[in-house]
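YM 10:42: META domain-containing protein sequence, as discussed on the call
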Amino acid sequence: MFSAIEPAAGNNESKTWSEMCATLVLTEEEEPEHSSKLWGYKMSGKMPINNYFGNFQVTDDALLRLSGTIKFVNLAYTKVGGMAKQMQFESYYMAALKSVDSYEVKDDVLTLRSAEGIVTLVFV
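YM 10:58: structure's back
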């Protein structure tokens, strides 16, 4: 559940690590009547100020292997304002989620990577 940017030292808007983190919850829901199985998964989380939610696509095979292609879709979030650093973190975080192409779970750590294989987000 950990994804963070380090606050700038001496900045009045600096926040502790826990205030500059985001959580991610992935759940399986009942398969919607008029959509494919890939759309049957929901995701949600909390950023420093706002909550976000959407769906994710992943194959059953990737779920069993704990790695493979994943795509976050239908992303939306609440739009409450906050301090500039918090809002900047949230902007970066949402852009990072949109760029995710693959995932791996190893030793209870979720690593999300972009299409280029660059580590985008890590959750512990």
